[in-house]
């Protein structure tokens, strides 16, 4: 009974994190973007600086009619948002935020593989949405999504492999346990490549060609309304949380920091992830959208060679210090 | 662990296992294995029988995911995640990409049936029989000890892959390298020929590599050329 209670409690905590953290990132995006553009952002909902704006948005989405286009493939169309969203919930289960068994939903032996595999599945949701909508803009968006995933999955895997080589394990808590401060300069190229490739996989600006609203009208999500559209949006913000958490755990040392071992480790993890989330928002405000061919060129001619070089460097250093 | 030692320990496990387990009192894991197997089998059958192209690819996701769950139930965690990463995350996405780039109508596409279905069925049954025979002969009544150390953890898999099975592993990587080089050579040659034809005033569809087929039949050859950006022009007709 105690075991069942433990599992239930962990699942509940992860679920609450899954529901709240993306909203916090979304609200932060509203405010940070506004201030970077010299305006205030939402100020009325909830009273204090518009804190309840996203709750109000959620209520609005829930009230809207759920439309399925007449020519669409109904079942695939309706299933797509769930396929896009659920993988991120599963990834959150295995990201450790502190030392020990108590600070992770479930210790998975091959954590890196689990995380990258499941994140890849969520792209299927966008593909299904793009195809099933019976809309040419949606199909274009789906196509671009697939091309982007194929291009950016490789550098992401290679850089993650580099960290796994450095740590000598593929388990996420194991990697953070093995972390030393000098890994930061050692793996810095890998960290940047991983983060950039992750942004591209989430289709965040400047890599948002698949959803480009001014060109193909939000791509795969053109035909979606109401709650299903909200689920796609939630998937994007959950993706930001997952990507920032992963980059923190793999490259920035997770809970390591002053007093990190004395029970304050989770504060460090959350702090580092929050800074990365800020960078994600910052990039959206700063950079224009990359053109489709520029996107592909960046992945194949810059990120892949860089990640291969990082693997070579990791191997050399590893052999030298062994 | 050398193969001989593995066989010996497997033989020991077999003797102990045969005494403590029976087929008539299945555990929860065995029942789950059977049920997931049925789902996987059903999804695989639907994959090859459905008349809707994209649905076939999506049912393939279910079948491959079911296989990953089976690996998990056999304690081979690493293999399970690699299965999801490579097959669901990449191969199916590539398939869908090819379908969408060429022709992926919503609804039935009766012209997508192959005339080779009976030959394919025979080959599939022969392959399945051979695989089942090999697996049954290799493992017989071996049971996996679920309470002991994980038999399929990353460390164990890595050790056996790079100690006992390093030669097949390297042979496979050479094979993949050859395929990669072949793909590059093919794409370069086609491009050079296309440019030569354009210079001569010909069209791309008259390429000797592809039969000069109009719209509907172009699907298969077009999937092969999906990665080529210049293939887009002659597919406009197919839409």
TrEMBL record, chain A:
Q: Which Pfam families match?
A: NADHdh
Q: Which InterPro entries match?
A: NADH_UbQ_OxRdtase_su1/FPO (IPR001694)
- Keywords associated with the record: Cell membrane, Membrane, NAD, Quinone, Translocase, Transmembrane, Transmembrane helix, Ubiquinone
Q: What is the similarity comment for this entry?
A: Belongs to the complex I subunit 1 family.
Q: List the transmembrane segments.
A: 7-26, 79-98, 110-133, 154-175, 181-200, 229-253, 265-286, 298-321
GO biological process per UniProt: aerobic respiration
- The EC number of this protein is 7.1.1.-
User: How does this protein assemble?
Assistant: NDH-1 is composed of 14 different subunits. Subunits NuoA, H, J, K, L, M, N constitute the membrane sector of the complex.
Q: Which GO terms describe its cellular component?
A: plasma membrane
Give the protein's function: NDH-1 shuttles electrons from NADH, via FMN and iron-sulfur (Fe-S) centers, to quinones in the respiratory chain. The immediate electron acceptor for the enzyme in this species is believed to be ubiquinone. Couples the redox reaction to proton translocation (for every two electrons transferred, four hydrogen ions are translocated across the cytoplasmic membrane), and thus conserves the redox energy in a proton gradient. This subunit may bind ubiquinone.
Q: Which PANTHER family match?
A: NADH DEHYDROGENASE SUBUNIT 1, NADH-UBIQUINONE OXIDOREDUCTASE CHAIN 1
Topological category with respect to the lipid bilayer: Multi-pass membrane protein
So what does this thing catalyse? a quinone + NADH + 5 H(+)(in) = a quinol + NAD(+) + 4 H(+)(out)
Top-rank taxon of the source lineage equals Bacteria
| Gene assigned in the entry | nuoH
* Name the record gives this protein: NADH-quinone oxidoreductase subunit H
The protein's GO terms of the molecular function aspect are:
NADH dehydrogenase activity; oxidoreductase activity, acting on NAD(P)H, quinone or similar compound as acceptor; quinone binding
UniProtKB/TrEMBL annotation, chain B:
GO CC annotations, alphabetized:
plasma membrane
Keyword 4Fe-4S appears in the UniProt entry: no
Keywords from the named record: Cell membrane, Membrane, NAD, Quinone, Transmembrane, Transmembrane helix
The ranges of region (Disordered) come to: 195-239
For bias kind Low complexity, which ranges apply? 195-206
Query: EC number(s) in its UniProt entry?
Result: 7.1.1.-
Q: Which Pfam families match?
A: Oxidored_q3
Question: Where does this protein chiefly localize?
Answer: membrane
Catalyses: a quinone + NADH + 5 H(+)(in) = a quinol + NAD(+) + 4 H(+)(out)
Q: Tell me yes or no: is Membrane among this UniProt entry's keywords.
A: yes
**How does the entry describe its membrane topology?**
Multi-pass membrane protein
TM ranges: 27-46, 53-72, 78-97, 118-136, 165-186
Q: Could you give a GO molecular-function term held by this entry?
A: quinone binding
Q: Where is the composition biased (Basic and acidic residues)?
A: 227-239
Q: Where in the cell is it found?
A: Cell membrane
State the source organism's domain of life: Bacteria
Question: Which protein family is it in?
Answer: Belongs to the complex I subunit 6 family.
Stated role: NDH-1 shuttles electrons from NADH, via FMN and iron-sulfur (Fe-S) centers, to quinones in the respiratory chain. Couples the redox reaction to proton translocation (for every two electrons transferred, four hydrogen ions are translocated across the cytoplasmic membrane), and thus conserves the redox energy in a proton gradient.
Protein name, per record: NADH-quinone oxidoreductase subunit J
Organism the protein comes from: Streptomyces dioscori
């Amino acid at each position: 009974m105690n075991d069942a209670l433990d599992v239930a409690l962990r699942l509940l905590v992860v679920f609450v994190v899954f529901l709240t953290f993306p909203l916090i990132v979304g609200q932060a995006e509203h405010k940070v973007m506004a201030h970077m553009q010299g305006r205030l952002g939402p100020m009325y909902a909830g009273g204090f600086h518009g804190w309840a704006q996203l709750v109000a948005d959620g209520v609005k989405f829930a009230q809207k009619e759920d439309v399925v286009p007449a020519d669409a493939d109904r079942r695939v169309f309706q299933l797509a948002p769930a396929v896009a969203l659920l993988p991120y919930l599963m990834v959150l289960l295995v990201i450790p935020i502190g030392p020990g068994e108590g600070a992770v939903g479930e210790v998975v032996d091959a954590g890196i593989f689990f995380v990258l595999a499941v994140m890849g599945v969520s792209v299927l949701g966008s593909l299904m949405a793009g195809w099933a909508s019976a809309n040419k803009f949606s199909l274009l968006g789906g196509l671009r999504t697939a091309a982007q995933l194929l291009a950016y999955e490789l550098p992401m895997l290679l850089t993650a492999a580099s960290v796994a080589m450095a740590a000598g394990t593929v388990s996420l808590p194991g990697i953070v346990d093995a972390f030393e401060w000098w890994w930061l300069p050692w793996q810095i190229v890998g960290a940047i490549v991983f983060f950039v490739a992750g942004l591209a996989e989430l289709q965040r600006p400047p890599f948002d060609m698949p959803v480009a609203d001014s060109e193909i009208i939000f791509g795969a999500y053109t035909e979606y309304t109401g709650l299903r559209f909200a689920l796609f949006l939630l998937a994007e913000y959950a993706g930001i949380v997952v990507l920032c958490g992963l980059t923190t755990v793999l490259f920035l040392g997770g809970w390591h920091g002053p007093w990190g071992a004395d029970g304050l480790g989770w504060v460090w993890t959350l702090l580092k992830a929050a800074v990365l989330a800020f960078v994600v928002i910052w990039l959206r405000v700063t950079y224009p959208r990359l053109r489709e061919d520029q996107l592909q060129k960046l992945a194949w001619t810059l990120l892949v060679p860089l990640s291969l070089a990082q693997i070579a460097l990791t191997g050399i250093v590893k052999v030298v210090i062994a | 662990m050398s193969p001989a030692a593995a066989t010996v320990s497997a033989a020991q496990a077999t003797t102990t296992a045969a005494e403590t387990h029976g087929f008539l009192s299945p555990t929860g894991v065995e029942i789950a294995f059977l049920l997931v197997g049925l789902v996987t089998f059903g999804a695989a059958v639907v994959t090859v029988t459905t008349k809707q192209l994209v649905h076939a690819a999506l049912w393939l996701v279910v079948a491959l995911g079911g296989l990953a769950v089976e690996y998990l139930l056999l304690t081979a965690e690493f293999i399970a995640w690699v299965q999801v990463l490579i097959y669901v995350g990449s191969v199916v996405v590539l398939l869908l990409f090819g379908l969408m780039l060429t022709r992926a109508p919503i609804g039935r596409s009766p012209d997508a049936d192959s005339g080779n279905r009976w030959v394919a069925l025979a080959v599939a049954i022969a392959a399945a029989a051979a695989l089942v025979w090999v697996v049954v002969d290799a493992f017989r009544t071996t049971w996996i000890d679920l309470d002991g150390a994980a038999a399929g953890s990353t460390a164990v898999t890595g050790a056996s892959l790079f100690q006992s099975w390093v030669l097949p592993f390297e042979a496979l990587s050479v094979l993949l390298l050859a395929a990669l080089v072949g793909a590059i050579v093919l794409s370069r040659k086609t491009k050079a020929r296309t440019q030569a034809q354009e210079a001569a005033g010909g069209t791309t569809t008259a390429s000797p590599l592809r039969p000069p087929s109009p719209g509907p039949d172009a699907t298969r050859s077009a999937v092969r050329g999906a990665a080529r950006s210049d293939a887009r022009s002659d597919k406009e007709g197919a839409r």
